[in-house]
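## tool: complex_structure
## caller: assistant
## args:
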Amino acid sequence: MTHPAGHRPPKWANRLLEWYCRPELLEDLQGDLHEYFDRNVARMGYKRARINFVLDVFKFMRPYTIKRPTAIYQLIQKTMLTNHVKITFRNLVKNKTFSLINIGGLAISMVICLLSISFISELNSYDKFNVNHERIYRIQSAYQRSGQPVLNLASSSVYTAKKIKNSFPEVEDLTLVTYGFQGNALTANNDYVSLNGHWATESFFNVFSFDLKQGNPNTALKEPYSLILTERIATSLFGHTQAVGKTIKLQNDREYKVTGIMANVPANSHIQFEVLCSFKTKEIEERNNERFDSWTSLFNHYTYLLLPQNADTEALEAKLINLSEEENAKVNNRSIVLGLQPLDKIAIGTPLMNDLGFSMDQDVVFMVIGLTFIILLSACFNYTNLSIARSFKRTREIGVRKAMGSTRAQVSRLFLTEAIVISILALLIAYPIFEVTKGQVLSFDSELQQAISFETSPKLLVTFVGFALLTGLMAGFLPAVFLSKTKVVNALKGIFSRTSTTSSWNMRKALLVAQYTLSLGFILATTISYSQYKYALDYDLGYQTSGIVNVALGGQDAQTVINEFSKHPQVLGISKSMLTLGTGRYLDFYGHYQNSSDSSQISYNIVNENYLPLHDFEFIAGSNFDKESELVGQSSIIVNEVLLKRFGVDSPTEALGEQMVLSGNKYRIQGVVSDFHSSSLSDEIMPFAFLSTGGFPNASNTLNLKISNDNLTETMSDLKGIWSTIDKAAPFEAEFYDEQIKQTYVSFFSIFKIVSILATIAISIAALTLLGMAIYTTEIKLKEISIRKVLGAQSKHLAYHLSKGFLYPLVLAPVIAIPLTYFVFDEFILTGISYRAPIGILELSGGLAILALIVVLTVSGQIFKSVRANPGATLRSE
Amino acid sequence: MKGTHLGEFQELVLLSIGVLYPEAYGVGIKEEIYAKTGRKVTLSTVHAALNRLEKKGLIKSELGEATKIRGGKRKRYLTITSYGIKMLSESRAQREQFWNAIPEIVFDVN
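## result:
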């Protein structure tokens, strides 16, 4: 080629052109492109000209330029395909061990892939049953109190909904859903059935496409005290679903009229409910609450908009921001910025606080996809590695094929066909395993269990098959490229060109390192997440939780329950509290010490005088609350050290008797306790104040029972019996404090479980590869070993000689895996956590030891077999 | 009437082929259009138009001699067929008709 100054267009683009372009057009086209390229070099420089050339090559891909296969070509294709499939099966049967290792490895990883494919496709199907799902938006609120971080809420206020309804003509329809309708209804057989659901405005069925079986969708939610029941609830209440027009009496003695029966809510709806009550009911109940429809009461109401086709959402968002600014000007210390969230982005999207139903962080979804891909890649490496290792046995076959006129493309197709057949076989094994394990996987997480059903649909099955084909292509790609390169003459003479064998050996080593690295990474991840979980559980919170049972009062009078419970001999003490500390929840308000201009956010809990001694809080100054009965009207608080530090008080005794203003009320500091973890280990220790129930007689809703360790189960069932004499409808809700704390850190445990499963799979696949490689190496080197042995080599030297190929990559793996895993955990997984378990040498070296052990176990068997073999027997055969 | 009607861009290409006679080819036509009208068209657009024109029988092509530039590839030289000439002049006549039918006053106003 004659390009001036050696400036050439990219070779690959040129080749691409030659590949797709019709021969009769090619010469002219290529010539023009080259000429144009030369001109461009002169005009805009070499680099730009190359880019332009590539772009032009792609632009020339038009129907009239693309080659069409001829009939004879198609015929050959078909015949060859049959031949390839036949050869594949022959090879599978011939090398049973390798086939098993390959299919097994792929099948294991495919189970994971099938799980995550169905998981993600199910998440994707969320809310899509709504005919207008693309046009439905939810109002979200970014809520901020001055000096505090922004809270992104999924909810909005009644005020906002009304405002939008009245002054936003571009919104086609709107429905307001208020969370938390609850009631106990009496059935025909005198049982209580608890009804859970929401209040909703009458346009609910215009916006959403829930299936109303009976009743008028336009009027069913119009009148106050109207109820819509799902078929399931209707059946358990009345025994049948013909319930429209009947009345239900709830515990507040109001009669509700059933105005509609709807099909059960689909599992893939983010709004879940069993009953819907008309919003007018809520309005009547809240008529004396002036805050009910204020701009800032935005925690329980969800506004859904139906917009017209091709609505200008940006303009609408701008209008919402204007509205927010207008309203924010009228309130102090807090601001709310409204925004739009598409319905389709609720199930998978950015996490919002107090979401109405199930929602999955999109980052988590990406992580699932990423991990799945890594596992799949590992299985493909396994296949690639073994295929290339085995290739020398097939070089003759390739040579013959090529000598008979096979093109390189046809040889590659042979190897791709093999990979695809193996991948389909793997799918056939993986699918039943998937069906069996899917239930187990869901049981990891109770939230997931409710949200995901893992139903198999025909569409999903088609996706699975498509996925298997893709996997086959991926696994077969490298073998196809490598093996089709073989030169005819060399292959037939039985010569390997040095370059091709060494390069394939290097690549196999690289793949082995990659697999070791993956396995090690997963082992480390398992240990790290487990030690973080253990760390959180064993952490000294600053108070005692063992032997304490927390009982939810559920509206019962505290004193009555205390009197009854304290009669039980095993109950050692009872205290009252508002909040259960250490479980990630907190209450807070603003307060200041002597300087009224220096306010701070302060967490609090309302407790009675038994609480602090019962939980062994450590007093460093002052004293406990007085008896509740004597405290009425008094206002003492007990604070922690961080609070004193926050307001610059040096010694705890100095603070005693001083006054604090909390949320506008005055309190006297009666005691100081040493610091403790009030929320969870994810958060820093906050300034904290205990308030006495003396000032808030009705504020406590939890009893803390200290019970003795003997006969625990008996004591619990006794307590349950006592409870049922007090409250006949509500069940006995009691939990061990330690269990509640465990629940708080269940996410660590979920990570640990998921990662440990992935680790097991990555390791099994790596072990399979190793096994295959070991079998192969010893098989090839059998003669060499025998000769060495005859010449006097010792067994241990031979063993070293054989195994060094597997051991060297083992040194490289930790160098890559340890920093990488550490980085991933440090940057992504543990970022939000203030108190972390240290990642020590023990965890790291332990992981390495496990990996080394597995390598040695897998490889040693094969090596000993070949070292021990009688050289006479192997050598005589020739 | 896709078969007989000449598109605006196709007409331009056809005219350029005429202008460049007898050495009209892909890159040349592209440059010619740019020089005369200032329109930047891509090579692939020109080629697509040439392909259509040739199918319609308005132009014919033959391969030239191999030269040292163009990576040693031969050029495909294009010439207008008599049918092409006919189409061009028809299209011109149509336009003339329109021009002649515009009243003088239109030009005065502007």
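## assistant note: The helical segments of chain B are 8-20, 26-37, 43-56, 82-101, 104-109. The interface with chain A takes residues 25-27, 30, 42-44, 47-48, 51, 63, 68-76 of chain B (CB under 8 Å). Handing back to user.
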